[in-house]
Amino acid sequence: MPPAGSPPRRYNRIVPKILVTGGAGYIGSLTTYQLLQRGFEVVVVDDLSRGHRHNVPPDLLRVVHLQETAALAPLLIGVDAVVHFAAFIAVGESAREPELYFSNNVGGTISLLAAMARAGVKRLVFSSTAAVYGNPETIPIPEDAPLAPVSPYGESKLIVERMLKQLDEFRGLRSVALRYFNACGAMPEAGFGEQHDPETHLIPLLFRAIDTGEPIKIFGNDYPTPDGTCVRDYIHVSDLAEAHLAALDYLMNGGKSDVFNAGAGRGQTVMEVMRAVEEVTGRKVPYVIAPRREGDAAELVADSGKLRRVLGWKPVRSELGRIVKDAWEFFQSARAGASRP
Ligand code: UDP
Question: What is the DSSP secondary structure assignment for residue 295, as one 8-state letter?
Answer without folding.
Answer: T
